[in-house]
Amino acid sequence: MKPTFRILLLCLGLLSIGACKRWELTDQQLLDYYAGKQLQPSFHQVDTLGRSLHYAKLGYDSLPLLFLVHGAPGSWQGYFNLMNDPELQERFLMVSIDRPGYGKSDYGDALVSIEDQARMMHAILARYPNNRPIILLGRSFGSPIVAQLAADYPDLVDALVMLAPPIDPQLEKFWWFSPLGRWNFAQKFLPDAVNVATLEKYAHERELKKLDRKWEKIHKPSTVIQGGKDWIVEPKNLLFAERKMRNAPLRLVYIAEQDHDISTNRPDLVKKYVLQHHREYHERALPRVASGEWMMEAITEE
Q: What is the pLDDT of residue 51?
């Protein structure tokens, strides 16, 4: 192998994995972590669309549902910090998905269709129709999937939160190393999760264009949180949400000094707005302007 190619391959691997800051606990480490704890996750599998979808569930079945969808690459463990937050555990039954191709959901077998991923997740949501409010939380590539769910299955969604969402097809970002991930030879040296993420990445603009006609169907209260120093997702995606989500009560949150990893670095803010949706649902405290149309709220956080 030529030295230049080896360097490029190394850069691709480091950038692909480092950008996600992905870590995983083994099954044994999970058992050790939860040993003796009152609440422990249970793990489930649903078969739909000829595939298998794995998810973790933690909390009491009588509580409202917080439905968590990770980005690319990732797994249900990407929300480990939120699922183990004592206040969220008091308020929610939490379900965190291994998206198709990741974790234990047919690992390495990509499903690039946003609509099909939402259809698969609907099979899980449909198990909890009475856990109100049902709040969907998606980060990065998980954001357009929860938006698709909100548009297609409004009876099973009460609120929507998107973190660093790549939702504008005109703003899909690529980098100098992106094409390297499509080389068959390079893929042999990369984790299957990174190869799945590459397939999703190169299909994403096309998939977002399909989703474009669905935004007007979202009527449920929504919060979009974006960091100003996000080098993975263009911060102007926040303006796309403002333009497209005209039929929903919308809260836009901008964090000037925040990078892409909002749920990791600012779980306090994520929890703040999830709990705000929970409270607003019970209080029916949704702001309106005099005309009766929904109000958009823009907030700057530090």
A: 97
